């Protein structure tokens, strides 16, 4: 439903009946106010956990059709304000979106159709470079405020559950390199190397000779400086390069939090490229977010549309079944798949809590719109992982058609001690 600004005086009369209809299905500790005036309660409570102040008719229109996309857009663009913890705010948003979905049962189907009509040409090298620039080049200082000191921007690995974020990120990197059985002197390619944490660890602790590639200028600059500061220029090379432009062979390949940018229609070619870059006895590991929709549809209630609009332009999430199928089509055999969904819940909670704690300083680094985008994005993703809308899989693979006898008999090698080097 659309409202024009000329209809603003009638907004309270529209919101009142809407609230009454919702209260027959919902009981939320949520107070709704029009331009700071008297409020509408969406449940039975003494004190609201969240208050939504509707600032104009555009904000009211978002509430009358409360998808996550509409609500998120209204908040980011300043048409509504919210009071309450960010965790409570997202809980209320999902409650409203659930109610809105009941009124629009065809919305999810329509979103899936639109999703599948996305043209693969949107993932040209130029388009992908621009999308990476938009997301990762906000500023290194911005990310440094709420990531761990190594600035690892992907799901951590909480081996025991009581680790700090920094400890869990080191364990994640070691978990990947141990799964890959990285050996001294091997050549390792890290596709989407971020700020360089994995290649630095692989060189220092595992003795590998590494190449890290990224499309982000900011990441390239800082990662290069970190390599220089560690004295590893002879063992680690950082490149500003697209994965499709790499041609030399590697013994090991890691791709962490990158294939979400590849595009569904390009997954087979992506895995084919990894196949072509691997030595005949090489191993690769793909660590990435997946959809829980078996048809590769977007996340519930328009959350995917919000992320595409404001956070990850051109990002697409495949189901793990699609990952395994396209991996095989690309000439790779999956050896092991591990779901780290609950680990990403905790990772995102750590990021969101740090973001909230540093909010005052973050607002000096970015404009208010960017701050709002990231605030709701981090906690919204946490909710999606918590409720199985999305997941995180690590898939270990090698070239298909290899003899089976060379593989270990059990998964024990993945969980050996922290010595760093794991012999064949």
Automatic annotation (TrEMBL):
Which residue ranges does the record assign to the DUF7884 domain?
22-99
Q: Does the keyword Metal-binding apply?
A: no
Active-site annotation: 381
Gene3D superfamilies per the record?
Vaccinia Virus protein VP39 (3.40.50.150)
Q: Which Pfam families match?
A: CMAS, DUF7884
Coiled-coil positions:
none
Q: Keywords in alphabetical order, please.
A: Lipid metabolism, Methyltransferase, S-adenosyl-L-methionine, Transferase
Q: Can you name one GO molecular function term for this protein?
A: methyltransferase activity
TM stretches of this protein: none
Query: GO:BP terms for this protein?
Result: lipid biosynthetic process; methylation
Provide the family line: Belongs to the CFA/CMAS family.
Specify the protein name. SAM-dependent methyltransferase
User: Which lineage do the record's taxonomy fields give for this organism?
Assistant: Bacteria, Pseudomonadati, Pseudomonadota, Betaproteobacteria, Burkholderiales
């Amino acid at each position: 439903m659309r409202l024009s600004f000329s209809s603003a005086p009638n907004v309270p009369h529209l919101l009142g009946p809407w609230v009454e209809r919702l209260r027959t299905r919902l009981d939320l500790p949520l107070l709704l106010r029009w331009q700071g005036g008297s409020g509408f309660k969406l449940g039975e409570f003494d004190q609201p956990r969240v208050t939504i102040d509707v600032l104009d008719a555009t904000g009211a229109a978002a509430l009358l059709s409360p998808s996550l996309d509409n609500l998120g857009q209204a908040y980011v663009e300043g048409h509504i304000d919210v009071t309450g913890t960010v965790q409570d705010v997202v809980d209320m948003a999902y409650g409203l979106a659930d109610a809105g979905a009941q009124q629009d049962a065809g919305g999810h189907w329509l979103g899936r159709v639109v999703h599948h009509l996305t043209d693969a040409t949107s993932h040209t090298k130029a388009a992908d470079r621009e999308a990476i620039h938009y997301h990762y080049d906000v500023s290194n200082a911005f990310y440094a405020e709420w990531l761990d000191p190594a600035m690892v921007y992907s799901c951590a690995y909480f081996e025991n559950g009581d680790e700090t974020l920094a400890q869990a990120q080191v364990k994640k990197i070691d978990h990947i390199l141990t799964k890959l059985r990285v050996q001294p002197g091997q050549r390792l390619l890290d596709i989407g190397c971020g700020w360089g944490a994995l290649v630095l660890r692989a060189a220092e602790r595992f003795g590998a000779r590494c190449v890290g590639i990224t499309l982000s200028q900011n990441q390239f600059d800082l990662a290069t400086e970190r390599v220089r500061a560690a004295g590893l220029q002879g063992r680690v090379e950082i490149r500003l390069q697209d994965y499709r432009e790499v041609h030399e062979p590697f013994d090991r390949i890691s791709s962490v939090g990158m294939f979400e940018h590849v595009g569904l229609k390009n997954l087979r070619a992506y895995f084919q490229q990894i196949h072509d870059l691997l030595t005949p006895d090489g191993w690769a590991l793909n660590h990435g977010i997946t959809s829980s929709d078996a048809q590769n549809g977007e996340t519930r209630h328009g959350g995917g549309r919000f992320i595409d609009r404001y956070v990850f332009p051109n990002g697409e999430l495949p189901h793990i079944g699609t990952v395994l199928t396209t991996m095989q089509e690309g000439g790779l055999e999956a050896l092991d798949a591990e779901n780290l969904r609950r680990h990403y819940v905790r990772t995102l909670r750590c990021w969101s809590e740090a973001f909230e704690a540093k909010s005052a300083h973050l607002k000096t680094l970015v404009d208010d719109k960017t701050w709002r985008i990231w605030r709701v994005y981090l906690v919204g993703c946490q909710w999606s992982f918590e409720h199985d809308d999305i997941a995180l899989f690590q898939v270990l693979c090698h070239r298909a058609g290899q003899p089976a006898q060379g593989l270990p008999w059990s998964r024990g090698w993945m969980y050996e001690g922290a010595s760093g080097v794991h012999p064949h």
